[in-house]
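Study this protein:
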Amino acid sequence: MTEPLHYQFLLLTHVICADGQIHSEEAKALHELGSQVQINEATQNEADKILSQESDCLSVREIAGKIPVNQQEETMRQVLAIAHVDGYYAPTEKQLVDTIRQVWNWPERRVNSILEPVMLSIWPANRATQEEESDLSLAARVLKSQQNSPLSKALIGFIKDLAPDTLGQTIKKLEREVLLSGPEYDAAIAQCAKIAQEDYAFTESALNQSREALSKLDQDLKAILANLQKTPKGKSESSSAQEVAQQLEQSRQALTDEIVQKLEDLNASLKAKQRALNHFSIAFMGRTKAGKSTLHAIVTGEGWEAIGVGKQRTTRLNRVYEWKNIRIIDTPGIGAPGGQTDEQIARSVIDESDVICYVVTNDSIQETEFRFVNLLKEKAKPLIVLLNVKYNLRDARRLEHFLKNQAKFIDNRRNGVLKGHLDRIADYAASQGVENYFSVIPAMLLAAQLSHEPEHTEAADKLYQLSQVQDFLDSIRESLIYYGPIRRSQTLLGSTVGSIEAPKVWINSQQQEYRQVILILEDKSSQFKVRISNAKEDGLRYFRTKVKKLFTDAKLRVSGFAEAHWQDKEDVLNRAWQTELNNIKLNASIQQEYEEVSRRFKKEIESIINEIGGEMNLIFILGGSSFKLNEQDSSTRWRNILRLASVGMMIASFTNPVFAVIGIGIGVIAQFFKSKDKKRREAVAKIKEALTSELEKYEQQVLGSFEKDFDKHCKAVEAEITQYFNILIENLKKIQSSLLSGEKSLNSLTIRLNKAYAKRVLDWCLDRYELLEDATVDREVISVKRDFGQQMTIHTRSEVSLQKSQVDIESVLQEKFTLEY
């Protein structure tokens, strides 16, 4: 029968992994916790799968779905307690809590109802309560009110052991303690600690102010749209403002989404600086199976039993080990299954590491590895490349041959078996632009491993010596003793500039994009006006031409009509002329031309909209702009304009000319004094003159009415478009101004941090120490020009005589260095 799983314990195991790092103390404490609550073997096996991030481990959703309703409240408290154990509620931890909440159909307010009373208890108003609970962390208080199960009771001690002020304080003995011992080491550690505390004060302040600047930018963007929607305006202007607000909402949301991401990045950076505060940190990186596990065992003296016997960890999380103020961060292999995730996790430790050790093997050196190394150079992180020379020393004959012919395996780097590998590394480094960035230390990690195995005790010293691992260990010692203080400043000050520079560069790019968008829109608005004016003139010309032809054709019919009706009486004549006009469909034709002009004008406006809109979209797409208009709302806006372009362009009918007076005159003349032929000619002439005159008057009436009506509606369309563009441009300028303000705020912070970092660089170059304060910084450093990861120029108030060479300075800083007075 299958043993039942302890799902609450498994859920807590997922929480431990949520922030992407598993501290060695966390893993041990979790194991002890499992022993206290007596989890069964099946639960332990499943927990190991979760810790190793194996693909077939139970997911958070699967586990949460197994928690009975009557245990959910207590389980959520356990989860929240672990999530807050390090004093930082990471976004990934909150995401895990949200997943559990969704599985349980909990509203978010229910989770907040657990946290809020606990958070309030830490404020000064509740200081008495706080003093009573001084032995409990914030996380433990989450559980204090509800300890129904043995797991909750056991968690109190577990959380206390893992609180930030105790985490990692247990000191481990290093197997080769000579590596990290002696007065030089102790002095370096003390100096690193002092500098780290001072530097962190600057770092924390800068990162917090950066977050405030980004949060203010987000609030400013929301306020711009809110004010746009609520500002009292006329009916038409209000409608345009509402539409612009709707259209800019998508653009604002795109900016907000990016701001949220930048805030999370800054939170992660601050958390990294907090983790890096008390220890000199070394990160092990490299492709999977490159030998990092063996190297870790060599340095820490732990984990030998898992090396070479198929027990290498498969976790995709960073593992952390601490001793003697050294912190080793063991990352998952670059290029392991799910490689992108692995690489992202490995990237996460760069900001908190003082030195990166990148492990490569002689049988699998790949150019892709040096693309990743390029990222380290961009971060100005010091790098040591350990070339793990693989040779099957497990074969007894090869081992014997190795011990007898060690000279063959200790290459002098100018010729021999390693030269080709070293050259290949140099070529790959050059192809990625990272040549001369790092030193390469060859070593045989398997030989060092064999030196720790009982069956090789007699040859242990020789194996260890031949492994050349000591060269690597010496480089770590050198990094700490000789460069420890400046490495600490690089991590806490120098690289933090990069964390703030990233959102600053992004804001600058957005500000430039919006500036470009504004210029484009202003140009397009002007184009609209010109094109509408041209469309109006085209419409007028077209209508005049058509109307002139219609009336010319009507006038040609006047002679025949006059000859046929010269003897008609007035009423008969008028009825006949009306019939004639109906036959030639003069009014219907005029109406048809009105409709045609309306159609052509509307089509031209639509063409202008499509053409200019298409140009704008193309410009934004090609430029990679994040500026967006809500397409649905935008199309609604243009449909409204097109509708306006066709409104009022039709005429129902025109009044026909009246010929009553003409008819009476002709009748009187026809009755007296004249011969019949003469009477006919004169009557015909007068009818022609009268009808022609009336047609001309009618033509002018039609043209005048049309021009007045057409002009009115062209101006209405132009006004509508102009108003829309004006409101859009005005609010885009406000957004640009907010972006510029945010950029200036972040720039002032990078200036301050760069100056503080420059002061540390100068102190290191002068072999001195001074308290890091704004006053001491400003007393010596005027300004700093820094292209992060590339070049640094320090302008000082007086001449400085450096105690370090240019080569040494640039090698340590990983940036070109210039000093100006």
